[in-house]
Amino acid sequence: MSARSVRPALSALAILFAGCTSVQIPSHTPRDVATFPDRPTAPPPAPRPPLTRLPGHVPLPQVSTPRIPPPAMPNNAPVAPGAPAPVISCDPGGCWSDGRRYEGGTGGTFLDKNGRPCQSNGNWIQCF
Question: CA–CA separation, 118 vs 104, rounded Å?
Answer without folding.
Answer: 10
